[in-house]
Amino acid sequence: MRLAPVLLLALAACPVAARAECTSILDKPLTAILRPVIENADLCKNLRKRVKVAGIKVKLAVDQTKRVSLDSLGFCTNGAQSELDSSVNVTCETSPAATVNLELSETFDIKASIDLPACRLTALAITSHGIIGELVLANRSYRDKAHEAIEKNLQRLCAG
């Protein structure tokens, strides 16, 4: 990733202001770096839940990732502290061998705060409004994995 050092220099050079300055200049390079990481993630793996259907408890496994897409990404900075705001759409489906075939789609809104000089994630908020989101966000390990994945890729970006 030859673009990473240039991108970090551009981030560091952004003017310090009392309020966050949003810039679309960095949206495209950041999107180019983050899109493959996000879109190649197996976000539906291990999504299983017991549900009641007509009074009968059924184990539902919508654990195959059909599609992940980075729908939008915005970047704002006020010098050392930056905010990344994105929208990611995830489509999960049951295994083709499942008795009942389902496909569920969900949009996640992700807000991250990044300390640029320290090159670390300082805050992460993920919200959604559907069944996939409920399953994912109810599981603390998924939040931890998301935080770790973003932190790891941020470190890689900083290292160049």
Would you write up a description of this structure?
The chain is of the alpha+beta class and 160 residues long. The protein has one domain (3-159). It has 4 helices and 7 strands. It has helices at residues 3-13, 27-39, 131-138, 140-159; strands spanning 21-22, 48-53, 56-61, 64-77, 81-93, 103-115, 120-127. The strands form 2 sheets. Strands 1-4-5-6-7 form a 5-stranded antiparallel beta sheet. Strand 2 and strand 3 (56-61) form a beta hairpin. It is elongated and about 55 Å long.
Topology (elements, then pairings):
Layout: H1 3-13, E1 21-22, H2 27-39, E2 48-53, E3 56-61, E4 64-77, E5 81-93, E6 103-115, E7 120-127, H3 131-138, H4 140-159
Antiparallel strand pairs: 1-4, 2-3, 4-5, 5-6, 6-7
Summarize the structure.
The protein has helices at residues 3-13, 27-39, 131-138, 140-159; strands at 21-22, 48-53, 56-61, 64-77, 81-93, 103-115, 120-127.
Compute the separation of the termini in Å: 6 Å
Give the CA-based shape. Answer: elongated
How large is the radius of gyration?
18 Å
Mean pLDDT: 77
Q: Which residue ranges are poorly predicted, with pLDDT under 50 across at least 5 consecutive positions?
A: 1-19
Q: How many structural domains does the protein architecture include?
A: 1
Helix content: 25-40%
